[in-house]
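Replying to the earlier thread about multi-chain prediction with a worked example.

Input:
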Amino acid sequence: MAKHATPLLDELEKGPWPSFVTDLKQQAATKPECWDILGQLELSYKDRITHWKHGGIVGVFGYGGGIVGRYSDVPTRFPGVEHFHTVRIAQPSGLYYSTENLRALMDLWEKYGSGVTNMHGSTGDMIFLGTRTENLEPLFWDLTHDLKQDLGGSGSNLRTPSCCLGNSRCEWACYDAQELCNSLTQRYQDEIHRPAFPYKFKFKFSGCPNDCVAAIARSDFAVIGTWKDNIRIDQAAVQKYIANDPEYPANAGAYKGRDWGKFDIQKEVIKLCPTNCMWMEGNELKIDDSECTRCMHCIMSCRAPFVLERSKALPSASAPRPRSLMAPSSPPWSFRSSKSMPKMISRTSLI
Amino acid sequence: MGYDPKNPMEGRITDLGPRYYGDFLPPVIKENKGKWLYHEILEPGILVHVAESGAKVYTVRCGSARLLTVNRIRVYCDIADKYCGGYLRFTTRNNVEFMVDSKEKLEALKAGLQGCKDILPIGGTGACVTNIVHTQGWIHCHTPATDASGPVKAVMDDLFEYFGSMKLPAQVRIALACCLNMCGAVHASDIAILGIHRKPPMIDNDRITGVCEIPLAIASCPLGAVKPAKATNSAGEDVKSVKVNAERCMFCGNCYTMCPAMPLADPEGDGIAILVGGKVSNSKSAPKFSKLVVPFLPNTTPRWPETVDCVRQILVAYAKDAKKYERLGEWAERIGWEKFFEKTGLPFTEKSIDDYRLAYDTWRTTTQFKFTSHTAAYTK
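Result:
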């Protein structure tokens, strides 16, 4: 039985994309405070303005970050969201979970919070959305003692570092992004939990120049994989691509929803190379690696002939040695538009 | 035992950090980490990665609302337990991925997911519109200029055909940030939906003394628009306050972050700006920023039809006109931005012109432009 009428939000139950409104309504059957979340959100849809107050400092003893205080500005109408603090939980690198762990986290959040989450927040943490001040310490106790897990960062501290899935399931990763992300996260626990910086500071780790975690755009300290040495070419596979062999789908099949015509290596790979460092000599594909800026377009177009990182087991030629491009930014760059324009990190050193 | 409020520091554990990722990898991932040879997208949303050992991992990628209850996450867990040996993962764009190690298990998983299409649509791979990266909006944030989950739902409903297919010239990354604090970091997206305020802060003289440090509020303004001032509160008392030079204000909201008595959210003033053409990948062209193309669209709840239509208008023009592999920004740069406005049918406004004092660095310094419908007013 609905506690509040939500005619505006009900419109968001229509359509094929998963509806958060339907989800919240179903959750409200066992977590009645979800009705007050929906009720207050409905009021925001009516008034076209937020109904959360500015700030509020809450946390657990010994930490200055990890929990964001939030209070409703209409608590008498929606007592279930009077306090609606966010708890940020540090995520495992690469966002893999066992269901055992995920279920334990859900049980914890059902016990101490609203039962609403974000998987995941923009910085990368798992976000538990909405609890009361008095629940924070008991939640933290269970989180650390029973689950052996910890809060993430918030405020003017080092925010929880995050990464792409790295070489756990990607052949393009030039270094172990998960391992580096996890190691540095452990190394900087103090900086993550106790705000001592002038402002927020973010680390992000991408395994290759595709930058799936958007490190270059959304971190103060971006680590992006790249490589030295030469790109290896499997000339036999090149012939397969030229012949449009179905065992060798161009672009790993990423464009096959439209008929773009036959794959043409000259037009789609060699001509699109930004440094024009590739050409055919008879049937042989050549690359002048000294001219290559490692944009990876060719590698993504043709999976087999180009290889970034390969174990010694592979028969053809030697493996290139991947190296990571560390790009600490000299002034503290940021992507906020407030105060200053957004900035992208510039390369400062090659380590 | 548990937390004892009488002895809060007793038995406390801190600084554990995240759980080690290695404990959560499915066996086929763990065994082949760092040894993947190649991958292929078998059909929209379904990938296979092949390792040196010959091992394969099949992944089914599904969309999610990001705002998820424990109920729904348990449904994800049920699926992972039934078909995937008890493991799953999320992507950096809020999709959820289910992984199995054989073709047979893949078929079983796909059949199982058929039954929950309404909560786990399959797609988000290759030349598609994948899930929208977004922020909190009115569900949790105190500074938003628009909602996040609502507009995202409305836009993804409208673009649903592009999520489950791979027929675009390249991938199109859409992102939403509900104000220009940019927690969504939309500024390097193919299409960016950005909440903006359009009115200067309103000063609450009853609260400013209690909740603000006046010098901090003054220093917070990048344009020097906030000045100290004497004011009278509602009780008729003189208070130290600030005044805002509205002509200078660019509605960035930094003063409100520093001083809660300077709110600038307003139902009529707040809305959405659209920026396009950004990317983070280094493929072919360098990473680049999105550029402002639509300065304002209203917050028309509950389904933001103006925003939905605008995003579709841009996407359809791009899909029709761009060459294979061209990202939206690469297409706009090839045809020229004046042509971009003509082809998308968007009006061009002076808001797209950089008015920064060093803007002569960014204005065009050639006569190599195109005469389009949008230059007609000056050139006919």
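The first helix of chain A runs from residue 7 to 10.

Feel free to reuse this layout for your own posts.
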